[in-house]
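PROTEIN DESIGN WORKSHEET
SECTION A - STRUCTURE
LENGTH: 214
TOKENS:
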């Protein structure tokens, strides 16, 4: 892949096989909030448990925001400062609060009849509202992982590069940006921008090693 020639693409093979975890970015490249909103909307078509969409995005795209994040990013400080933006992905432990809006809008748009909405909300809402924190944590981590991978692929389709980061001060990031740390579970940071160097190709285990047939 030529860094300077890569543009928006719908080529599935280019998106999937060309994706790399990028370590250095061109700091002069900006992503408009309009385009970032589009990227997040496309990523948010990822599947989620009972369609609760528990992912929450904190887009850090100002110099002030990145400077605040840098000391929390440990050995990823330079990536954070160089990237066009850093998307902090959280899981909302109280995502059930949006059930009525999600299912009500589905009825309004003709995606489901009213009786299906009523049946489903009556079936799972009490369960979600009383679910132990550890079980909810498992759900939001799974769903946030799904949206994160889709976000990386969507970003690449838009012509940008990404790098997922798990090494940062997860116990401090929510409060640093005024979020409720009891409600919003940190999942990962995702740097996004234009690569300043090509990422490394990595070896992947063969399917025979990772797969069991039954």
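SECTION B - SEQUENCE
RESIDUE ASSIGNMENT:
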């Amino acid at each position: 892949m030529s860094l300077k020639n890569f543009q928006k693409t719908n080529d599935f093979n280019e998106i999937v096989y060309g994706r790399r975890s990028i370590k250095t970015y061109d700091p002069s490249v900006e992503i408009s909030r309009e385009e970032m909103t589009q990227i997040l909307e496309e990523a948010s078509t990822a599947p989620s448990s009972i369609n609760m969409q528990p992912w929450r995005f904190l887009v850090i795209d100002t110099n002030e925001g990145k400077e605040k994040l840098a000391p929390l990013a440990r050995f990823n400080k330079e990536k954070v400062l160089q990237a066009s933006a850093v998307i902090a992905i959280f899981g909302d432990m109280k995502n059930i609060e949006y059930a009525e809006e999600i299912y009500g809008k589905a009825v309004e748009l003709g995606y489901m009849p009213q009786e299906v909405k009523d049946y489903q909300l009556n079936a799972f809402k009490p369960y979600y509202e009383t679910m132990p924190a550890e079980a909810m944590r498992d759900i939001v981590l799974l769903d946030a992982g799904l949206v994160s991978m889709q976000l990386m692929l969507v970003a690449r389709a838009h012509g940008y590069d990404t790098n997922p980061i798990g090494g940062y001060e997860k116990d401090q990031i929510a409060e640093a940006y005024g979020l409720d740390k009891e409600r919003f579970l940190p999942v990962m940071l995702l740097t996004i921008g234009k690569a300043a160097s090509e990422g490394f190709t990595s070896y992947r285990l063969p399917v025979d090693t990772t797969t069991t047939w039954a």
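SECTION C - NOTES
Residues 1-5 have pLDDT under 50 and may be disordered.
Residues 66 and 81 are 6 Å apart (CA to CA).
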